[in-house]
Amino acid sequence: MTQQAGDSGVGTGRLAGKAGIVTGAASRVGAGIAHRLVADGARLCLADMDAARGAAMAAELGDAAFFMQTDLQIDGSIQQCVREAVDQFGGLDLLVNGACTYRDGGIAAERADWLVACNINLVGAALTIRAAAPEMAARGGGSIVNIASIAGKVAMAGRWLYPSTKAALLQLTRCAATDLAADRIRVNSVSPGWTWSHLMEDLSGGDRAVIDGLAADYHLQGRTSTSEEVAAVVAFLCSDDAACVTGADYAADGGYSALGPERALPAMRDQLVAAGRIAE
Ligand SMILES: NC(=O)c1ccc[n+]([C@@H]2O[C@H](COP(=O)([O-])OP(=O)(O)OC[C@H]3O[C@@H](n4cnc5c(N)ncnc54)[C@H](O)[C@@H]3O)[C@@H](O)[C@H]2O)c1
């Protein structure tokens, strides 16, 4: 832990008085979520394996957040994270499961690859919910948001692990919502489309237009989303504004999932014209 929350971190927005954990908080998406939840008044434990980025995030957020280096592959690390958050805040109201690995390899992936992908993306989220839920129940309820993906709903060439774990996370969301409803804990997921990330920044040399150009054909909005835009949906689900929403998945994907198979239509039309089957 590099920084501790102080009493002065209490906010005044719609999440005022709420305390939460955001896993994967060192990622760009996680950072966006953390900034938004703090802006809405929450105090946060930022949980991630990446100590350098995590500590930097906590420093940005000041007294409203502290960083806890956490490895979701280790039960004791998850439990220590939840314990520390409860010690710091006196309880827990919110959990955002945002950590992930993109480790894949498709058909070539070995068992070890599968186990790591499932361990972080699915089991890590499930065991964090398991550790956090009793603390939320003790507060009279809470809200859990799992960060899923468009990849959990459609197939992607060459990728088996990441999409499969995200599909399982969508089902975990429904299962957990079912079992935790009696404790007034809502469990939902947000499925982003392409969202500007550290990886995209590295691949494009920081040129957002390059990635937006690639995204344009697959997203109605013709661009990648920002982490702030995804975070706004997460903040809604965390808040009492979503009091009747549980077991649901919210697409924060710029219209990716609305396109359906007809996204291939222009290419198909070109082929039919070229084959002389239809007029130009
Ligand atoms: N960027 C996108 O286009 C996109 C699209 C759909 C969904 N998402 C989802 O958004 C979230 C963030 O995505 P991103 O692209 O910013 O990813 P990223 O790879 O930049 O971040 C993942 C974070 O998880 C952390 N992490 C990995 N293994 C961990 C472990 N064992 N314990 C604790 N932390 C661990 C990493 O340190 C990192 O900070 C993920 O859940 C991802 O699936 C992203």
UniProtKB/TrEMBL annotation:
<protein>
    <submittedName>
        <fullName>SDR family oxidoreductase</fullName>
    </submittedName>
</protein>
<dbReference type="Pfam" id="PF13561">
    <property type="entry name" value="adh_short_C2"/>
</dbReference>
<keyword id="KW-0560">Oxidoreductase</keyword>
<dbReference type="InterPro" id="IPR036291">
    <property type="entry name" value="NAD(P)-bd_dom_sf"/>
</dbReference>
<comment type="similarity">
    <text>Belongs to the short-chain dehydrogenases/reductases (SDR) family.</text>
</comment>
<dbReference type="InterPro" id="IPR002347">
    <property type="entry name" value="SDR_fam"/>
</dbReference>
<dbReference type="InterPro" id="IPR020904">
    <property type="entry name" value="Sc_DH/Rdtase_CS"/>
</dbReference>
